[in-house]
Each structure stands twice: as C-alpha cells, then as structure tokens.
Amino acid sequence: MRGEAIPAGDRNTRLIIVGNLLHEDSLLMRIKEEINQGRAKGVFKEYPLLDENDNCLWPGKYPTPQDVEEEKLNISSEISWQREYLLRIIPSDDQVIYPEWIQYYEELPGVRHKAYRGTYTAVDLAISTKNSADYTAIVSAHIYGRCEKMRIYILPNPIMEKLNFPTQVDLIKNYKRTQMLGNYDKLFVESVAYQEALPQVLETQGVEAESVVPKGDKRTRLALTSAPLKSGMIKFPRVGCEKLIEQLVGFGIEKHDDLADAFSLLINTTLDKHVNEGTIIMAFLGGDSDDDGIIYYSDYVDVDN
Question: Which of 44, 45, 221, 245 has a C-alpha 20 to 30 A away from that of 36?
C-alpha cells in the first residue's frame, strides 16, 4: 500500500490514511509508532465514539446515553463494538485468554509462609538482537501449596529484552544467583534448536537449569493455562505485569508474544511436575488387620486461608 500511495501527488499533497486498528502490527499502528518515534512526519488522530470518561464524541447522532446503548444493542457483537466504535484492538473470536480470567493478589504471602514451595522461573530465548527478532523473556512465580490447593503467584517486573547469547547467559546467571536462592527453586529453559546449549553452558558455570521440550504449538500451550487461570490458581500483582497480561489477553494480535511463551512454559511445566503429588502413601506389611495395610495421607495447605 505504501509503495502505491506515497509517490502520488506533488510536494504539497496531504496524505490522509483512514482505517481501524486491527492489531498491534497493523499498518496504522506502524505509522503511529513511526510518528511517535520521530521517524515519520505526521499527526495521528483517533476518535472513538466514547472517550475515556464515556462521553460521546458524536452528540449530533447520539445525543443521550440511551441512544448509544441502543446502537450497541443493534450491533449485538461485543468484539465489533469494541473494535469498530471504540477503536480498541480486540482479538478475534478464537481468543485464548480473556481479561475477566485474570485474578490479582494484593500482597505476596512471602517465602516464610508454611505453604511456600519455591521460586520457579521460565526462560524463553531469542537468538538475535535485530529489531525484527523476538525478545528473551523471563517470567517468575512463587509456588504455594499442593494439588488443588496449589497457588501460583506471578512475580512483578518480568524481563523482556533483546540479548545475544553471551549476554543471555550472564543475565540468567545473575538472576539465578540474586533472585533464586532457595534449595527448591527451579529454572526452566525451553529446549529448541540452539537453546538446547544454554542449560549445558549454565551447568559448566555452576547454574542448574532444566531443559523443557515444548508440547504443541504456542496457542495450544497457552490454552493449557486457561483452566488454572479461570480457577484462580494463578494470580498476578496489581502493578508490574501489565505487558505480560497484554500479551496473554491479546495473543494473536500483539506484536510480540515472548512473555506469553515464557508464562505458558512456566505454568505448564510446574503443573506437569506437581499435578499428581500431594498424596503420600505409607504401606505397612503384616499384622492381623483385614484391610490392605495402606494409609493415605493428603498434605494440603490452603494458602488463601
């Protein structure tokens, strides 16, 4: 489109581009980013039907809030309403994670809580520092409880940076030695292509990391986290995970999904490790009892109470 439109006109021609914000990497969003960064000359304007205070910007057609509500009822599609009228970037109907599933914690229970199990961290690696490349992403959580009582508290300020391999190694070493000091803390690294070398390099430098082979595609892996998200097993801080949540809710339309990938790696690996634990079986042989001599003991600690 640019190749056809930009050469048109003369030096005084004003080029006006009109459209909807379909996703973060759409033409209009790219132009907006270029203008904001000073790489393009222009003005970006957006006029949603309702401003941030729900005031209608088209009072001639919708003079009252009731008129706006009637128009919304005529649309009968929340996605179309948000996208076409409010100019919000909304995923398509096959959205993986919905914003109402995101639950928050006000305060971390802390590492001294009786249910605390450790700090788990997942790393999604990128191989290049070019502008078009993916980011290296690190997402961590405190793990509490067992089985259905398990709670995963995502820690604020996950890392998302463009790094080369030596810098990745240094960053992960420093993170492990400063943020993961417990005996039961675990570091997960996705094992794909060149990434398989990272755990080996870290091990030679005294940092234990576990290679994890991803199962299925990105969408499938993220979809596997939907149930624990909806149930409240996973909780986020009120401040500090905005970009991660944006990538989860906007998966498929966000320009980058590296934090979402690290998140799904963290959650799915944690659940795979602990889904069947919590029941300790102690067997006693012999005796005159008619039962099987097995005692079942469930070690549940409720972190919410």
Answer: 245
